[in-house]
What we know:
This protein is α+β, with helices and mostly antiparallel strands. It folds into two domains: about 15-85, SH3 type barrels (Roll), CATH 2.30.30.100; about 90-315, no CATH class. Helix content is about 25%, strand content about 25%. It contains six helices and 15 strands. The protein has helices spanning about 1-20, 90-100, 190-205, 215-220, 230-240, 250-265; strands at about 20-25, 30-40, 40-45, 55-60, 60-65, 70-75, 140-145, 145-155, 160-165, 170, 275-280, 285-290, 300-305, 305-310, 315. The chain has a six-stranded antiparallel sheet, with no helix packed on it. A hairpin with a 2-residue loop joins strand 7 and strand 8 (about 145-155). Helix 2 crosses helix 6. The radius of gyration is 21 Å and the shape is globular.
Amino acid sequence: MKRIVFVLVAVLICSALAAQDLLVKRNGEKMRVKVLSVTKRKVKFVRQGTEMPVYTLRASDIDYIEYPMGDRDTFATDGTLQNTPAMTKESVRIAAQETEAKAAEPKKWHGAVVAYGAPQPPQPARDITDKSLPQYSVGDLYTNGDVKGIVVTTTDNGRHGTIMSLDEECLAWCTIKPKLLKRVGADSHIDGRENMKAVAAHIAANNLSWSDFPAFKWCLDKGDGWYLPALNEVWALGTMYNGGSRTAASHKARKAFNARLKGAEGVLISNIMYYSSSTENRDVKLNHHSHMNSETPYTGTSYKGEELFVRAFYRF
């Protein structure tokens, strides 16, 4: 009996070790860790088999992080995340399929995406009798003049929807000192455009500038129609990236989606990334964010001055 228990414990320990992330520093030191978050300047993690304390390393000190499923995040000497997934025969095959059969989207990427704990965003009434409008599927590359991005959600049989920018940045929600913060009124969980209007009104009423709200300004600078997405919209991006379901995330879908981003010369997404939303929290110092992983909780809050990844959204 003791031998059976010992073997079982040994198996559990080996399984736990196998599930850890491998962090390799630029000096060659290797560490088995659990990565908590990655931003443009730092990586937070806990050591193997622990929950505390939380350690922080400068991204520029890290060579790469390898995850249990084979994905690898590689960092440049300036700390820039390269996001280079491991190229296995399977991932090459999937990428080739996506290129050759552009119209044959995986069915799991189709259909409405409902944000965790929130109702389906309302779909405005539109005239969809105009057959001249092109139809898009979730995951398609959308191009219309200077507007270019990846389709995240669709309505009206694919004639309308939302897209995300091909690039991203790591920025603060706002840079106003905590003691001077006021409620902005960016309360929408479903439409980042409404939150952009609230920020614009707040700026005008308080003699501020868009530079005080870097994440919003970065989206605004892309041109008319671009905005910082609301919480549910960021959540929808994560759900689409995971193959249409957070409870049964698809590793293949992630690779296929990143292959499409790479083909469009976009910045790849990693499942450990945290993306800021335009949605303000009840606490004046906080805003909401959502991560790209399949583990609950899918959303959280962060200080408005903390720099998180940002993707701009656009509705077509």
